[in-house]
Design goal:
Helix content is about 15%, strand content about 40%. The protein is α+β, with helices and mostly antiparallel strands. It folds into 3 domains: about 50 residues; about 120 residues, Immunoglobulins (Immunoglobulin-like, Sandwich); about 100 residues, ApaG domain (Immunoglobulin-like, Sandwich). Helix 1 runs antiparallel to helix 2. Strand 15 and strand 16 form a beta hairpin. The protein is built from 2 helices and 17 strands.
């Protein structure tokens, strides 16, 4: 801009000099005019420079666009169904043993602790976010939900103990429970996911009448197959009582080789297993007519069904 103004003033001065020279005035006058013109030009130039340098304009700084966050991405809703996060594959268990046999007699309002030993038969680890939940029957003064007491790995067994209270009215009561995964899948024990339970009898009688409430009989063979010199059959009888009891029983066999009377004493409600062996050699007759049986003689007489087995030796 300044260079343009200088060039313009110089051009005007040169033109004036040429015009004066052309008109032919005297030399002194021309010199004075020329000097005056040059002085004016220089003054004008100086004025322009001062005008442009004395108070310079503030430099124009380009305005910077403020920093902005990127525009949020628009997430498209997926049409693919969510993956299955269910722990249904973890809901597998089996009952190993339990305390407080079914039919145990309690006075009304008696507090007792029921324990079930349950094995984790899944491939999952059960942590303490798994729960024990009331399922059916009488809750017997317990809570409705309990956390699993400890972490249980695959194949491990956990004791589940609940403090319960016998109802106040006489009668037979049953309280059923199940387990629950963190995503609220309820499951029991065994192939049919059965609830594990306790069943008690409440009696306010001053003198209780205890008895054998159940007897289970089974027979095994050793070896399972083949025909050795001797094949051993063993019968197992498991008695269950609902309280302290002394009782007498004896074995019966299909060949008449019955046992002498045997006495069992239980100091509290519980179970007792006894056994009897019958050996058959290779020369024994082969049939399906052999059996074992149990007869209870005291305090009450009772005959239980026999369990048969067959002997075959190819």
């Amino acid at each position: 801009m300044i260079k343009s103004i200088k060039y313009l003033l110089f051009s005007i001065s040169a033109t004036i000099v040429l015009l004066i020279t052309a008109c032919g005035p005297d030399t002194s006058t021309q010199g004075a005019v020329i000097q005056t013109s040059v002085a004016q030009t220089v003054a004008a130039q100086t004025t322009v420079e001062v005008a442009n340098t004395a108070t310079p304009s503030a430099p124009v700084i380009p305005t910077q666009t403020p920093f902005q966050l990127p525009t949020p991405l628009v997430l498209l809703t997926s049409t693919v169904p969510p993956s299955n996060t269910s722990k249904a594959e973890c809901a597998k268990a089996s009952l190993v043993s339990e305390t407080i046999v079914d039919g145990t007699i309690f006075k009304p309002g008696t507090q007792f602790t029921k324990t079930w030993e349950i094995t984790n038969t899944s491939n999952c680890v059960w942590d303490t976010s798994y729960k024990i939940v009331y399922w059916s029957g009488d809750i017997m003064g317990g809570g409705y939900v309990y956390n699993l007491p400890q972490v249980v790995g695959p194949g491990q067994t956990v004791p589940i103990s609940l403090v319960l209270i016998a109802p106040t009215a006489d009668g037979t009561y049953r309280s059923e429970w199940k387990l629950q995964t963190p995503d609220n899948i309820n499951y029991g024990v065994g192939a049919y996911q059965a609830a594990f339970y306790t069943e008690i009898v409440v009696s306010s009688s001053i003198k209780q009448k205890y008895a054998v409430t159940k007897m289970e009989l089974s027979v095994t063979r050793e070896p399972l197959t083949g025909c050795p010199a001797n094949t051993t059959y063993t019968a197992y009888a498991t008695f269950t009582t609902n309280g302290p009891l002394e009782f007498i029983y004896h074995w019966l066999q299909s060949d008449g080789n019955d046992s002498n009377p045997q006495t069992i004493v239980l100091k509290a409600a519980g179970t007792k297993t006894v056994s009897r062996v019958w050996k058959l050699n290779r020369a024994a007759s082969q049939n399906d007519n052999r059996w074992f049986a149990i007869v209870l003689t005291e305090p009450d007489y009772r005959e239980y069904p026999s369990v048969g087995f067959g002997f075959h030796c190819p």
